[in-house]
């Protein structure tokens, strides 16, 4: 926690008093803490308490702009390394899940790119309400980390799940998550993502349903774990931090060139892209006009990039992806052997919550000793982190 910039958002529940202990413990551990309170939170605890504990001014009003040079909520959002929402009421969770920004806390949280940890606290029945569950799922899917409430006596008289997790546990969870950040430092990671497009004529192409999400999350997670990341991306709608070197390509041939050109200097190479296996043999410079009868387009094979990398491999740890709809493990294993991989991530795209376009994924990680690890349904960023940790573990085992 030393020198970490932490914004602590306190919303209006009785557990707001526990946020005081959290502020105090974070500050004692060397973190810089700035607190934002909702209007309701100020009914439970005075802002002065948080000001004294954090030794920083407390933010409560979006329109209370003290410095004309800055916009407070953007300044705070950018300043944060970590954003903690504790206690998080059903109301603030619902607002954020639906993109509502109507006060200092909700506005700042929507503007931040920091890791967000949410520690809910509410009545047990509210916590179990389908709409609250749905809102928490929405936030989980976009990468927020939930620190589940404990079970016990609740201030409302009920016994059950809804009690804000203890400040020490909240700090422990965040610490262990943040420690992952140095795991890949000094490592170079090359990732390919998205589909390729194979041109038919100036207005038409063959492609596939890949959105590039899994590859982008892998790149983001590798970067956050300290790696120097190069991302070779097919045409997608994803965005990523400018700290990652992105090489945009369109066709399988362009992706082949970019991957081969950058391969030799890497430690880890992950091919998450959905490369077209075929392309039109002839591409037309003018738009094809329709005619009576059927149209036949002859397709020819593209280069198998992963196989080419497998043949060139020296020290690199090479990982492929397999999108399968049946017999996924068998097909995955075949690909691992055929392409000389160190591991393969097998995606059963027929499962709900897995594969193309989904915010979540469910995969099996299989290494070259055919040891399998199931990664259950989780947001793609979380799955990405787990894949990277498994790769690191395998690399360590190989070195040993
Ligand atoms: N891949 C590649 N170059 C290609 C095709 C695929 O590098 N021309 C890579 C993908 O990025 C992915 C893996 O190979 O990492 C997928 O393996 P592949 O056998 O090509 O998958 P499918 O195309 O799904 O194969 P099949 O049609 O045999 O199921």
Placed side by side, the strands forming the largest sheet appear as 12-11-8-13-16-17-18-19
Q: Bound compounds, please? A: cytidine-5'-triphosphate
Mean pLDDT: 93
Number of E-state strands: 19
In terms of topology, how is this protein built?
Blueprint (H helix, E strand, L loop, with lengths): L4 E6 L5 H13 L3 E6 L3 H4 L2 H8 L17 H8 L2 E7 L1 H8 L6 H8 L3 E6 L3 H5 L1 H12 L3 E2 L3 E4 L5 E5 L3 H13 L8 E6 L4 E4 L2 E3 L6 H12 L3 E6 L11 E4 L3 H12 L4 E4 L6 E3 L18 E3 L3 H8 L4 E8 L3 H11 L4 E6 L11 E8 L4 E8 H20 L1
Parallel strand pairs: 1-2, 1-3, 3-4, 4-5, 8-11, 8-13, 11-12, 13-16, 16-17
Antiparallel strand pairs: 6-7, 9-10, 14-15, 17-18, 18-19
Cytidine-5'-triphosphate binds next to α12 and β16.
Task: Please explain how this structure is put together.
- By secondary structure, the protein is an alpha/beta fold.
- The chain folds into two domains: 5-180, Rossmann fold; 188-399, CoaB-like (Rossmann fold, 3-Layer(aba) Sandwich).
- 36% of the residues lie in helices and 25% in strands.
- It is built from 14 helices and 19 strands.
- The protein has helices at residues 16-28, 41-44, 47-54, 72-79, 90-97, 104-111, 124-128, 130-141, 167-179, 213-224, 252-263, 305-312, 328-338, 380-399; strands at residues 5-10, 32-37, 82-88, 115-120, 145-146, 150-153, 159-163, 188-193, 198-201, 204-206, 228-233, 245-248, 268-271, 278-280, 299-301, 317-324, 343-348, 360-367, 372-379.
- Strands 12-11-8-13-16-17-18-19 form an eight-stranded mixed sheet, sandwiched between helices. It has a five-stranded parallel sheet with strand order 2-1-3-4-5, with helices on both faces. A two-stranded antiparallel ribbon has the order 6-7.
- Helix 1 packs parallel to helix 3 (47-54), helix 1 (16-28) crosses helix 9 and helix 4 (72-79) crosses helix 6.
- It is elongated.
- Bound molecules: cytidine-5'-triphosphate (CTP).
- The site of cytidine-5'-triphosphate (CTP) has 14 residues, from helix 12 and strand 16.
